[in-house]
Amino acid sequence: MSLKNLLRLAFLELARYRNISLFLVLNLALGIVGFFLLQIFQQSLLQQSAEKAQVILGGDLSISARRAFGEQERQAWESQIQFEKSSHFYSMFSMLRTPTDSKLTSVGVFDDNYPLYGQFKLSDGPFASDRARVWVDPEIQEMLDLKIGDLVEIGESSFAYSGVIVEDPSRLFRGTGFAPRVLIHKNFLIDAGLLKPGSTFTEYWSYKTAPTYDVVSAKSNLEKLIVDPVVRIENTKDSAQDSNRVLKYFTDYLGLVALVALGLCFLCGSYLLQWTFLNKKKSIAIYKTLGLSDEKIVGIYLLQNFILSLLACFLGYLLVQGVLPILQRVITEEFNLPINLVFSLKALIVTCLIAVLGPMLMVVPQIIQIVDLRPLMLFQNVETRVKKSWAYFFWLVSSVLVFWGLSVWQSNSFKVGSLFSIALVGLIIFFQVINRVILYFLEKMSSRFGWLTRYSVRGLTRKPASAGLVFTTMSLATLVLSLLPHVKSSIINEIRPDVSSQIPSLFLFDIQPEQVQGLQAISQELLKQDLELSPLVRSRILKVNEENYERAVQTGEIQTREADDEARFRNRGINLTYRDHLQASEDLIKGKFQTDFSEENPESLPQISLEKRYAGRVGIDIGDIVTFDVQGVELKAIVSSLRQVRWTSFQPNFFILFPKGVLEEAPQIFLTSISSEQRSVVKEFQRRVATNYKNVSIIDVTSTVENSLKYIEQMSIGLQFMAWLAVLVGLFVFVVLLNTQIKERLQEMNLLQIMGSTNAQVLKVVLTQFVLLMTTSIVFGVILGLVMAWIVITVSFDLTTVYDIQYLLLLGAILIPVCALALYIGLKPLKKLNPMDLIRQI
């Protein structure tokens, strides 16, 4: 048979079952809309990051560290680079002060060559170095009501306010950082006295190279030359991949929620394909009797699936084009993200590939049945079931592996993708088992009720596969929808200032030793309390168990989020502290904590405590001997314990904790925090400290937390959108199943009317079945959402679980009428019941 005839048969079959074909197209289109939008968002983000990579990085190559570089060190690496121009830049925190107020800022210190790429858009002319000037982010100008020419103080110098940074091309996004940016020229850095011993700053050297210069090879050579893992070496490719890490993590999890909706679509599609096959089996037997080969019948099926997939892609494309302008407006106005959503051919290709290959994978059970079907089935009325052969189980395992691959790809994490896949498959199995258990008990209990109820329950137990699909899809969708608000509620409860009295009001750092006594005096006068100061000692790890602690090299290959995190933690500077006690925000989970160290035994080593997750990321465990370079002095210590730290306490916490008696003589600065419910007292304390100790940086924790809450709210909106999409798919599955089940039972319902049942009784039978099914699935989804929320919040975030009961009530208020509408639509075929149809068939 020619391809033309195969296509004609395929179209005839689709036209014959046009309602089911329409359901399949709508089902798949709904599933791919969210996935398609997410791909467009990700591709737009990557494209803009890549286009601005040189500007964001500050050059073609960048070398930076949270310490000062020596002249010889710089000359050594510059001898290995062929560059046209270089730029020197510092970034540090400092208070910007006016006569009436002060604000923590991130100070950028630039030279005459800055920026090497791109141009800053300023409100009042270009950068200038003729006198001490400062340019600020708009929020600083608004908060302090600055006018051109106003004098402000940074460190120990005065600067003239010269305008607002209207557009900063080096920052693709403004995130939830502690402080807005201000810019000053390098000529005035020394006078400002911002670089004191132990001060927190980052030094950057950026280089502009020729377009043909191989920056990847140059970076590789520099990594061999600069062995200190604290020094960060980046090229433009690294910059594009690394920009806006938080947003990329957010899109990772959005992708997983989108996969839930897509997975529900494939479950529904599999059911529809199987239901359609059962209706077509005699037609297939006729084809075989007439001599049509299995290969050509399978070809017809595959052609049908391909046509439906293309139609779904086209419909999804139209829906996305309609939604895209709305989404762009939401991202710009609500999320305040300057992302220009651009329709991406790559996003379309990726989505269409999944939309085409997914249904091809779904049709495999029907192909197995087609091959096993015999023409004798034409004369028999026997239900065809999927043969549980090795081919079927191979298909099942392959489907799970494909979904696992998609999960890993979307989450950029083997760990997260694997856990997500295992959890989802486990939940599907769990819901199927629970559904069978519920149906079993319903059937046992139905004898206590009237015949209509018994008949309704029997209708469910006779169709366990379709009942299980409704139960699974709606339970999963409800679980996803009810899980996220509990996580958000728990995080907000932990960090909201007016809820948790443990959250400090101010966080102070860069305190010099000679300033401690004066700060204590101010605290006693205003707060009536002593400050609990935490020392900070700069260091780096030289060896672990006598093996050199080398840099984690980032290759050009795809990196998982775990590998990325491990490299970041391994290559960062190490801040040490010492105490003889654990804070309220710390818990000892393994080993023994040493409070004091004495050198009575010359061979003994100080026993240090590491934060649990940090230890895992850098590959250090209890019993390991770590060699530190503490500002030129080599120091060995043995890991004796692991701690769990509650970072959301906003207290001065550290990854590595020494006992007393080791680091007291090392160069150090101090950190502290204060808590007070009297806002006026806190404001006066901040003013006094900023005036008398100009190098001390102060974070207003209350304001920082409030800003963070805004971003948490915004991100939860995005996740909730995807979750509601999953619910919409679940409701669509429900309507489809309701429609197919009613069509399948029309003869049975007609028979009931012939036997004397009224139309209201027939309606009550079907209504009871599906109300029961929907109610149990939603209830179990909500209950399991509560359980999963507790697991996620306790295990992943180590927080106290706070359930959002108000949201659950709102969810119920929304789902009940929506489900009622779905029932109304699905029960429409019952209005066409006509007993004469059954008599005509007889």
Describe this structure in words.
- Pfam families: FtsX (PF02687).
- The protein is α+β, with helices and mostly antiparallel strands and 842 residues long.
- It folds into four domains: 1-50 and 249-412, no CATH class; 53-242, no CATH class; 465-503 and 702-842, no CATH class; 528-675, no CATH class.
- Helices cover 55% and strands 16% of the residues.
- The protein has a six-stranded mixed β-barrel. A six-stranded mixed β-barrel has the order 12-14-19-16-18-17.
- The longest helix is centred in the N-terminal third of the chain and has 45 residues, at 245-289.
- It is elongated and about 100 Å long.
Count of distinct strands: 21
Give the N-terminus to C-terminus distance in angstroms.
37 Å
Q: What's the pLDDT, averaged over the residues?
A: 80
Shape: elongated
Number of self-contained structural domains: 4
Oligomer: single chain
Determine the strand fraction and express it as a percent band.
15-25%
- Relative helix content: 40-55%
Number of helices: 25
- Main sheet characteristics: 6 strands, mixed, barrel
Low-confidence stretches: 838-842
Rg over CA atoms:
33 Å
The helix/strand class is alpha+beta
For the largest beta sheet, what order do the strands appear in spatially? 2-3-8-5-7-6
